[in-house]
Amino acid sequence: MNLNFARPFLSAVGVSALVLFLAGCPSKKAETDANNASAATNQAPQIDATPMSFDAAGSDSGKIAGLQTVTFDYDKSTLREESRKKLQGNADWMKSHASVNVQVEGHCDARGSLEYNLALGERRARSVKEYLVGLGVAESRLSVISYGKEKPVAQGDSEEALAKNRRANFLPLQ
Fold this sequence. Notes:
It is a single chain. The protein is α+β, with helices and mostly antiparallel strands. It is built from five helices and four strands; from the N terminus they run ααβαβαβαβ. Helix 4 (114-134) links the parallel strand 2 and strand 3 (142-148).
């Protein structure tokens, strides 16, 4: 098959495509120009360097006076009596720190599937949130998240280690 008759046409199409490709779309050109301008002035992006006023590990750290981690029985999301007493103290802390929102983190021990433990951790965090709301903490100040078995505080398979990991941690948010 002889394609000599089509070469001028293909060349013209190819050149046109190359010109369009090199010119780029306006948004890409503007983005490239902005990146080049930033690089030319040697300005790094500004990062908020304000230190956190609370320990990043939240109540698990034991360093936030007034906030305590609560624990749960195996495969349960109901609050124990000792947990209710701790939550009363946590509610008092939250009321005295009215500008601070708190994330309730639900955790599980290593037993069970990833999916099951994520769901159980969610139920634990929600039961804590509901209890705190009942004690007068504004619901809008509380968020929940489940980490399932992904963030243990104690290593090992002993009952003591497993029991420490079945918990709800409290993380103050700025």
